[in-house]
Request: fold
Amino acid sequence: MAKTYDHKKIEKKWRKHWEEGGAYVTDESSSKPKQYVLDMFPYPSGLGLHTGHVEGYTATDIYARFKRMQGFNVLHPMGWDAFGLPAENYAIKTKTPPRETTNKAIDNFRNQIQSLGLSYDWSREVGTHNPDYYKWTQWFFLFLFENGLAEKRMGKVNWCPTDQTVLANEQTVSESGEKGVCVRCGTKIIQRELAQWFFKITDFADALVNDLDGVDWPESTKVNQRNWIGRSEGAEIDFSVAESRQKITVFTTRPDTIFGATYLVLAPEHPLISESINTTINRSEIEAYLEKNKDLKEIERTAEGREKTGVELKGIKAINPATKEEIPIWVADYVLGGYGTGAIMAVPAHDSRDFAFARKFDLPMKAVIIPEGNVDFELQHLLFEGTQESVTEYIIKTGAYGGTGILVGSKQFNAQKSETVKEKISILVAGRTKVTYRLRDWLISRQRYWGAPIPVVYDPEGKPHAIPKEHLPWLLPEDVEYLPKGTSPLGTSKELLERTEKIFGKGWKPEIDTMDTFVCSSWYFFRFSDPHNLEEFASKEAMQKWLPVDLYMGGAEHTVLHLMYARFITKALQKFGYVSFGEPFKALRHQGMILAEDGTKMSKSKGNVINPDEFVELYGADTVRIYEMFMGPLEAMKPWNTQNIIGSRRFLERVWRIQEKMSKEALLDANADSVLQQTIKKVGEDIQTLSLNTAVSQMMICLNSFEKEEHIPVSTYESFLRILAPFAPHITEELWQDLGHTGSIHTEGWPTFDPSKLEKNEIVIAVQLAGKVKGTVVIANKATEDEVVQLVRADAKLSLIVPEKPSRTIFVPGRIINFIP
RNA sequence: GCCGGAGUGGUGGAAUGGUAUACACGCACGACUCAAAAUCGUGUCUCGCAAGGGAUGAGGGUUCGAGUCCCUCCUCCGGCACCA
Reply:
């Protein structure tokens, strides 16, 4: 009589039903509290959906469905990060327009996503490559430009000779960690000087660091963001040049070591070198050094393990403002021109880099800090009793000490703690406190075709002008030569040039670079709140209603930059009054990478890629969803195991079969009921914390206990189905309908549990002797310590082990009783 | 080197300081079957016939009691790394 579980029929039927009924279209009129549950939108690659997508999307789908059942109005959208290099490279190879391949890939992705039964509101779908979207990407460019947050300037840029484009610093590291290569093609990058557009993200450096304290993100991601920004607090100190009015300003985080600064080092780019080269006595040596190093890229200069090189500016000296002693000035490529002031005070006794340099060139060292806590008597003795030579000898032996401690050889600061005098010293010696950052401005120009055109035109003098907003979207031309020839493909479009001249006049030229695709993805979560708005990127009311995002899910691999840029855009909008908050993503979680069965990364070249479609076809979407959630902790990296999927399928088949035990009259056994109550409680808590693997296992435990029963009351089965519904939406909908319900199970409320039934009447507790388990006794749930002791004494085996008069008895209700002899 | 995170059966993995190995896969045996598959049942960390021991990367510590907390060390993963 009972139907068999035909996942193909069931899943197809309900997906059609949900789609036709608009089951997951967000209800804008609802007054329920909102919940914005967002996945990082994918790049629609031709390879299709991979197992990692399925994992993240299933987790947020379960969360979104759970929140709906809990009575929230949920916004759960999906879209496409559609501009980017693969489609363009494919176009170069095959002459197929990128729009064509991209749209095809999107259709494929959408089909795959829909086959998983994910409850997205497809009426809000966006694609960054569509003019009605990139119109607003261009609007953001103009918004930043008008407010002084976008500017064109010359910049040394990383240039990929193969892809013929500029790359951001962060795109010059290959996936295997190799530096100085194009992230896409692995070609060694070269450095070029070009006029480029920058977004001034550094204006927000402080807020980008500080506001991390207020968001619920994985700690490691916060650390990555902080590292990237690289905020460091220190001081700028002026060193005057002897017999000259020039001065050299250095940045240091350790002003407390200034008495140990025995020489200065300038970056090769430092302007003082050319200004004072005439007063040096080794001019040709210096020039030869600069010439030899001028083509070195920063990445090469900072390569791991590279031997430090440098040359002294002989004939000129600097004066240490603390000791008033003359110290040599060197040029060395280990000092970076683009960071701090491009000059440092070298303290070889207390900095390992300066130490290595001083050793190589036999420069003086002076120790001025000794570790606190009298750890090193030899050093202490030397500092107070020894000669400068003996101290130097000691340092050479032990290496630089970079920690904090007690000052010595520092005149009036002697015997004070290094931390407490830091600020005092920097002010007393012609300096001021200063904060610097590693973060650089965001270079957004790309010499590529498949991106949003930068909405700028140049007058006949070459001066840039913003394109007035009424001309947006500034369309991406189609009559282009894809194959780049060192200039941007847009430069080959006749239509674009004619369009520009027609609107702005003869001699005007369009900007031919496009925007970094990270610009497109830095604001899409705003658009989802109001995706069809023709007047604004999103209305203030819509953003007020839906944002910030309550839960944001995506892989950890490539998100440092995306998150940074999205936060930057949000802070810019906040500054100019568009939004009231400064952080776009309240809570962030990362799904872990799913590895191939052999425990290595899936890759096309290794041929070990798992295609989720295959398993959706074979076992059904519900099974794949359950399996991927059951594999292990969401955020953990875990290997795929095809053999294990069958367990998830069997679970659903048992859910299906147990309907045969249903009975309207039956009462649930108290113990089975208690398992059900625990399951309602635990699964709810687990979904909230996204511990979905243990949620699935709890449902399995619950089903196991039902299977021991003769009959299952209908209401019990209904509760169970409602708990399972977010995980396996199709099978539960079918079974729900079979129970005679006309409405969808997914509009039901989340079941409540009865706390009074959570506990079983009889429980097993462990009996310990001095902390070692010796056996168990079955006791009534509410049994007192005395009653438990009685039971233990009555037990034939335990009574022999437990001492007559224990010195102590520890009773933890419901857990253990421990007798200490 | 620095900063995160992790190390538990044959495998994926559970465990508010309270019976380590839940749940699942696999495997073995049994039932059903002419047979097989499917399904169901039993067993499955380790030494031991048993009674009992031992085991959560290694070693210490705190505690009545430690996978969990503290210290030292080892290994693996992720990130940063000449940023003064």
Observations:
- DSSP finds 28 helices and 32 strands in chain A.
